[in-house]
Amino acid sequence: MTRSLHLPNDVLLLVGEHLESHTDRWNLIFVSRHFHDLFVSLLYRVVRLNNWRDAYSFLCAITKRPPLTRAVRELDLSGWQRDLIPQEDWQSLQRSTTLKDCVEVSSYSPDETAQWNEHLATGRGDAWIALMLPLLTQLRQLHIVYYTHPICLNHIMQRAINGERPFQSQPGFQHLRKVSLHHQEDVDHSAAQEDAGNDYHQTSSALLLSFFRLSSMRSLVANSVVDPTSDESDFDVEETEQSHSGLSSITEIDLRHSSGNHGMEALISSCTDLKSFKYQHSDSHLASHGYLPSAFYHSLTRSKRTLQTLWLDHYGDHYPFTSAGLNQTHDEWFGSLADFSALREIRVRLPNLLDIRYQNEPTTPLLNCLPGSLETLYIEGCEERHMGMLVSQLRTVVKNRPSRFPRLRYLDVEGAFQNASGDELGDTSVPVSSRTDHTIKAKIMQAAELLHEDCASVGLELHVHDRAFSKDLRY
Fold first, then answer.
1. Is 438 part of a structural domain of the chain?
2. Which of 122, 172, 380, 456 could pair with 160 as two cysteines, CB 3.0-4.6 Å apart?
3. Of 167, 190, 213, which closes a domain?
4. pLDDT classification of 31: cutoffs 50, 70, 90
5. Domain that holds residue 164
6. Rounded Cα gap, residues 96 and 91, in angstroms
7. DSSP string spanning 13-80?
8. For residue range 143-153, what is the model confidence (pLDDT) as tens digits?
């Protein structure tokens, strides 16, 4: 005689939570009615929406079964594919009480309702996600794709901050900790950003800053962020800094493919306990004035006692000319990091780490530019002509490690170290198999050998590599 084993629901849920595959969780709900009722919420822990059809289906599901709204912990639209809703489908959607009710709750006027409908009908992910955000009270992570003029999303964020409808009965985003913002060009208006001018940057800045005003937030990742330029009188940077200074609980900022004309001062100044700041520069934005390392030094100085990770201009894009004219600032010295007393990891370009813009030797030795708390140092953009100087500077750092940098464990040097291939040299007579592709120049390896010996003697790990291929020198 066999007896069935009845496990408590709490134990079953723990087992279900260890199933990472969405397919496995999906199969669970078909085992029995009991399993369906118990595990259906697991399917809604992480929700990924890729188009308006996914969004509408999800909206219907959570409005028909309100308990599911409390199950959603992560909402991800990073794979969103925007397409216009066919007229026949849109007419059907407009007859949907689910969609009409959600728009009515979020809209304040007939004009605003028309705006919502216009953005929804064009398949904009920012409008669809704005419609469902008031319903998701337990969100922890949010990944958004937004386009030029995210008006609906801006409305929702501002009303959540102000406690206005539809957030009057329950405050919004009480548990939201991590947000990723991905800007995409308007597919219907390729020149939308150019036509929008300053107004576009004011709109995107307002959206970004709204997340800094949520008390639960800890981490923000965003791309294509552009600081307002100094001639944009309608957006007062100093006023923004004063109104939000020291109010944000965000500890990690990661800005990719961005342009900080003011060193992202408005964002950095709002953080009381900034621990990680990562910035990748790009001159591709129309409003970019070029990379200004000194502006970032000014902004980050206020975080010198809390900052633990600093990435500056990691594989950034620099053009010879920007909207401000000849681009001559990206190789200027950032300034000494010696006073950043909590800094553990640094990733920075060589011309920004050492003041070598007009000379071969730095005005301030590397030994005096690094904090004593340093554990990992990545140096990018080293030119061949500077390799000897950098090795000398790093050897001094390694020799002083016991007294000055006792936590230092890892050094990484990246530069244009690759041998030119036969194609690049114009030599077509050399067989492909015998060309010197994917090798580091012998003189670079020789220069690094002395540094290798020093590192090996104290147990330091050293990497020297070229970004164009994966091979490196691992000591």
1. no
2. 172
3. 190
4. low
5. 46-190
6. 9
7. HHHHHT---HHHHHHHTTS-HHHHHHHGGGGGSEEE--SHHHHHHHHHHHHHSGGGGGT--EEE-TT-
8. 999 988 899 99
